[in-house]
Design a protein that fits this description.
Elements lengths: L1 H49 L1 E2 L4 E2 L1 H5 L3 H4 L3 E4 L4 E3 L14 H5 L5 E4 L5 E11 L2 E12 L12 H15 L8 H4 L8 E6 L4 E5 L8 H11 L3 E6 L4 E9 L3 E9 L1 H22 L1 H12 L5 H7 L5 E4 L8 H12 L3 E5 L10 E2 L3 H18 E2 L4 E9 L2 E8 L8 E2 L2 E6 L2 E4 L2 H7 L1
Parallel strand pairs: 13-14
Antiparallel strand pairs: 1-2, 3-4, 3-12, 5-6, 6-7, 7-8, 8-9, 10-11, 11-12, 14-18, 15-18, 16-19, 17-18, 19-20, 20-21
Helix pairs in contact: 1-8, 1-9
Length: 436
């Protein structure tokens, strides 16, 4: 029995630790989400304050020249016609990292493009097949942009074409398109570029090249905006990413933040370990008490009367409360044998003889006297749970559930008793020696 109790104890402690840890982690996650959402809203509002737009034009000069732009601005800034004013590589797995291939195909030859932000670009698009998939590459040279003090006036079409061939030849040796972000750092001679898979997914993007979000995904933003806070799993970083979407009549601004899963896992393990120790130190005795009492079958009054007195059922008349030694003897013998249930208020023949009381205070006093008698007379103190079965507003039968001993023997005034059938008999020397 001792092994079974300890096995159940460990299982219970682990289960409680897991449940409490999950609640704590959920609380930490909710607080994190709340604080992150508040920060992302501030970033979006800050971005709105720097960019002025109408149906056909956006003034981004304040935004471009803002010294806090990198840390305080939104990660995605999209005009309502789908034009990307800004797009980040940091959250390349987001639902908004898509580029309209129709726009890219317009530049199968180097051509000047004037954007709604008053920028002028020389753009050129070509495509390659890698690992059976088609990728579109757009290269761009900034001719007139707010972040450059001078304008480029010479024709650089041949330079773009030459650079495209260089890029394509390098890419053909790349076996995995995921390596492109690292491969291209500082290696492209054009001002900006984007690499887009045939399904319009952006694989890499750099330095503000003109791009449009496809119409399908633009419509999805409106659906997302009904509930502006979203969560997705980023496969590249293996972290959870929180997204906040806000809009005004002309702009969608989207800010993102990562939640470190490794940190959450560490926190969960730490919580489980600490809570397990806490339960083991402060609640172990209560858990053991609960498990020991669960070993005793729960028997109703009707079942008990039908079965009659036996090794685990004992009836005591209401008068036995005046002479509690008979009750204490049965408690001791049951605790030393199989545990059991004592019904106070039932005669030996099964006839009901309930305890009468005038008010609940009197009933509490009866229970308190019985509890004190158990504590002062039986050594060590056995595990006993007292409950009431009310027959009317002033008549009750007390039900004592006694747990079986698992690591000690109990004695009443120095005498050890055991249960034999429906009798409580003292243990002799040879019986005690065999048990010990």
């Amino acid at each position: 029995m001792k092994k079974r109790i300890y096995k159940k104890l460990i299982i219970n402690e682990i289960v409680f630790s897991l449940l409490i840890s999950l609640v704590l982690i959920a609380a930490v996650l909710l607080i994190t989400i709340y604080k992150t959402n508040r920060d992302l809203i501030q970033r979006n509002l800050y971005t709105f304050s720097l960019i002025e737009c109408n149906e056909t034009k956006c003034d981004i000069e304040k935004w471009v020249n803002d010294m806090n732009k990198d840390s305080l601005s939104a990660d995605f800034i999209i005009h309502k016609n789908g034009f990307f004013i800004d797009l980040t590589n940091e959250f390349i797995e987001s639902p908004f990292s898509y580029s309209d291939i129709k726009f890219l195909k317009e530049f199968d030859q180097p051509k000047i493009y004037k954007s709604i932000t008053s920028e002028e670009w020389l753009l050129y698009t070509d495509s390659i097949i890698i690992n059976g998939k088609k990728y579109y590459i757009m290269l761009g040279i900034a001719l007139k942009v707010p972040w450059r003090l001078f304008e480029v006036k010479e024709d650089l079409s041949d330079l773009l074409k030459k650079e495209m061939e260089n890029v394509k030849s390098k890419l053909l040796y790349s076996y995995k398109i995921q390596n492109i972000p690292q491969f291209f750092k500082g290696e492209i001679k054009s001002d900006a570029f984007q690499i887009v898979r045939e399904d319009e997914k952006i694989m890499n993007w750099g330095w503000g090249i003109p791009a449009f979000l496809p119409q399908y995904y633009l419509e999805k933003i409106d659906k997302y905006n009904r509930f502006p806070f979203h969560i997705y799993f980023d496969k590249t970083s293996n972290n959870i990413v929180l997204l906040r979407i806000d809009k005004n009549p002309y702009l969608y601004v989207i800010s993102a933040a990562e939640v470190n899963i490794a940190y959450l896992v560490f926190l969960t393990i730490a919580f489980i370990f600490i809570i397990f120790l806490f339960i083991n130190i402060f609640f172990k005795r209560k858990l053991i008490r609960k498990l020991i009492l669960e070993e005793v079958p729960d028997i109703s009054i009707e079942e008990a009367i039908k079965k009659g007195e036996n090794e685990i059922i004992e009836f005591k008349s209401k008068d036995s409360l005046n002479f509690p030694d008979t009750i204490l003897k049965s408690i001791t013998s049951m605790a030393n044998t199989y545990g059991g249930i004592i019904f106070i208020g039932i005669k030996d023949n099964g006839e009901l003889e309930p305890i009468s009381f005038e008010n609940l205070e009197e009933l509490d006093l009866i229970k308190k006297k019985l509890t004190n008698a158990i504590k002062t007379s039986i050594t060590p103190i056995p595990i006993v749970r007292i409950s009431e079965h009310f027959l009317s507003s002033n008549k009750v039968i007390l039900k004592l559930k006694i747990g079986r001993s698992y690591d000690s023997l109990f004695s009443l005034n120095g005498i050890f008793y055991r249960r034999l059938g429906s009798s409580d008999i003292p243990m002799d020397f040879f019986y005690l020696r065999n048990i010990i």
